[in-house]
Specification:
The structure is a homodimer.
Chain A lengths: L8 E5 L2 H6 L6 E6 L32 H18 E11 L4 H10 L3 E10 L15 E8 L10 H7 L8 E4 L9 E2 L2 E2 L7 H11 L5 E4 L6 H8 L3 E6 L2 H13 L23 H5 L8 E3 L6 E4 L5 E3 L2 E3 L1 H9 L6 H4 L1 E4 L2 E4 H14 L1
Parallel strand pairs in A: 1-10, 2-3, 2-9, 4-6, 9-10
Antiparallel strand pairs in A: 3-5, 4-5, 7-8, 11-12, 11-15, 12-13, 13-14, 15-16
The structure holds a DNA duplex (19 and 19 nucleotides).
Amino acid sequence: MTATGSDPMRIVHGECVAEMAKLPDKSVDLIFADPPYNLQLGGGLRRPEGSEVDAVDDEWDRFDSFAAYDEFSRSWLGEARRILKDTGSLWVIGSYHNIFRVGATLQDLGYWILNDIIWRKTNPMPNFKGTRFTNAHETLIWCAKSEQARYRFNYHAMKALNDDLQMRSDWSIPLCTGAEREKLNGRKAHPTQKPEELLYRVLLACSEPGDLVLDPFLGSGTTGAVAKRLGRRFMGIEREETYIGVARSRIERARQVELDALEISRGRRAQPRVPFGALLETGLIRPGTPLWDARRRFEARVRADGSILHGKEAGSIHKIGAQVQNAPSCNGWTFWHMEEAGSLMPLDALRQRYRDQQQTG
Amino acid sequence: MTATGSDPMRIVHGECVAEMAKLPDKSVDLIFADPPYNLQLGGGLRRPEGSEVDAVDDEWDRFDSFAAYDEFSRSWLGEARRILKDTGSLWVIGSYHNIFRVGATLQDLGYWILNDIIWRKTNPMPNFKGTRFTNAHETLIWCAKSEQARYRFNYHAMKALNDDLQMRSDWSIPLCTGAEREKLNGRKAHPTQKPEELLYRVLLACSEPGDLVLDPFLGSGTTGAVAKRLGRRFMGIEREETYIGVARSRIERARQVELDALEISRGRRAQPRVPFGALLETGLIRPGTPLWDARRRFEARVRADGSILHGKEAGSIHKIGAQVQNAPSCNGWTFWHMEEAGSLMPLDALRQRYRDQQQTG
DNA sequence: TGGTTTTATGAATCTTTTA
DNA sequence: CTAAAAGATTCATAAAACC
């Protein structure tokens, strides 16, 4: 049976390069790949309360060096390019550990990058040790087979999916948790299962019903499940037998549905939250500015990092506002005021000014 | 005059590699770089031997220009690494055209990536032809000099700037427009002027007042203007004479905020270490005092040497705290409490009292 | 049954100082 | 140098447990 044979949902147990080598030239419409990230984690990481983080320490994610990882990337990306139709495109997802190397390798092989897409996680794991910024996103690279290639892009479908606004390169999508997360003996079946919402967008943007979609690192089978929902043909390659079983039963359970399935995740039009610090960064308020409450009973001063100082106590506008009133909580935006043209203006007015700026630029 | 000389705001007209070569080893605290990435335009790009890279129009040229760009990256990133202090860090900003190559080169040179940061543009230019997703972000890479290097990161200041939530790796910031945009004869003075909000965050996170900040591709001078506002020393290097003039007048106009407003929030790590025994020596706590955890599940007694006794086990507040919870570690300062006025007060409050005494007394 | 509190957990390159 | 001790550190969400 070939990839273009009678089984529209094919799962293959094997090495991705060897299995791709069996496919004819220019036979695949879309490739989505989630290769190992080369995380190389050290010891166990503990949360502040003492519990241990269940990290990725699998054998398949270990490489001896950057050179070894690059060689691995070249081999699977090279074979992928051969079997990709001229109208097809390739997506790869990764993090800062590997994505820069993958991107450079892509370019070296002649792929033409169309966009880099940011999966902005709405609920990422925090940085428990306070040593870095919360690693709150992953990066996807979308590329065509070459600079000249005429690739498929369903522009209007993407625009419709985004309330008739052109779809941007940053996508806010939650982690895969809850009922969607595949379980095996009550534990997560795969350490890095991707949310279906992410794949839904990719497949809807870059393929048609009946197209052949390939995932060379199948894992828990998200790509296959979404391909089936959207009426695409599919081929998935996976090395680990355990994951083959997980993916097979998952894709079996998936049902082709109407395109309204994503409706729920769209309505994100709330007023964006503004941290007080943003007003300092933009110069709407300056470090050193005195703040008062409406009746000028309390005074505090703004510091460069957005905390405010009252006596010897420093903290957020909310925390210090609550403290001076001896109240359990306080809305600093309405409590604190700054002087403007001789009268007091609540910080909330400044916040509105900031939001206006953000919109108009 | 050296970089550490008398002029705190130094602007140099020249090639960045040649000018960096004049600086001593380990002399710079923070480097922010916005290198050219116009692979197609040739103007910013020269091969190592000096010839100019032609426009890209066939496959051979493309490989040639990628190689030339990588060579260019290696040369300036290598020199930057030499002059960077062991506690310093480097930021580079770019887009999908160049950032993957820069990131791979960074790693090859031994830099250690700490985060990739997404500048999410609130008002990006749309994709007019409807051929791709709106390119709505740029990527910054933040890295330390090596895996082992202990870099500066003002974690608590970043947290304060974000309303007491850990700062994430995606930053929503508008494009630089309006009054902030530098003009020359009524037209924009520089094609890619970065918003000050972006640099404010970078400098506040990774430097201290008085630190030396270097920008090897000065452009319109945003890094210099923010460095001056925040009381950092600065050196900027720029090849184009026109931009030198723009940046010089801009930095001249910038005003430093008051010194005491530059104070930022510090964590407990920044405060002097207090041995528990010191509280006994000063009489803030007495031998024999009973200690409890917050829920009064465990009790221990203070001994004269600063160890505590729980049952038959004696040890430090940390060791015994870990032992009773059956945890791998424990912060005894926050775990143990003593009774005061009928309620429980954490030892941490007592430690603060001790520190206040040391300051005033 | 319903509302509140507690617990579990997610691709993580996750400490610093002293002996 | 290594080993041990001190001690600093978390956000959003869902499920489970508890009133």
